[in-house]
Specification:
The chain is an alpha+beta fold. It contains three helices and nine strands, in the order ββββαββββαβα. The chain is 18% helix and 36% strand. It has a seven-stranded antiparallel β-sheet, with helices on one face. Strands 2-9 form a two-stranded antiparallel sheet.
Amino acid sequence: MNGLLPCYEKCFFCGPATGGLALELAYEDGQAVCDFTADQRFQGYDGMLHGGIVTGVLDEVMWWTLFMQTRQVAATWKIEVEFRRPVTCGKPYRASAQFIQSAHGSYSLTARIEDSEKRPCAKGTGTFRRTRGFTLEDVVKLLDFRGVSHELRALFRGPQSP
């Protein structure tokens, strides 16, 4: 099942009205992906996207890949990033993630950001753990489903879902 994913309205990375990146994430062939071009206001060193923002983009695609694969609400426990090439503001990139494994309530994923020539610019590995006291219904209340297909919306349905 492929298509546009909802966004968390208050998220710096995917929220459309937070002043952040406003990433539009999609689910394609078992992984969350997003194409993006970062504005100069997110630079660290002159013209380059700040490393914390790069890390956050990788975290975002890993979280959504994890959620779509498992339907579990989890939080980042550990993330490690390798910066291969600068991610330059004003140029197009694609971020994607892959689910690796789950064991004892922990999940392992990898992610990457590639330039328009498909060269790796950043790679990340992440470990996520299930959250307690925070349910699917809690998450769904905060999601914006505009543009999301009925088929994908159905994956989020619970007692209090839209």
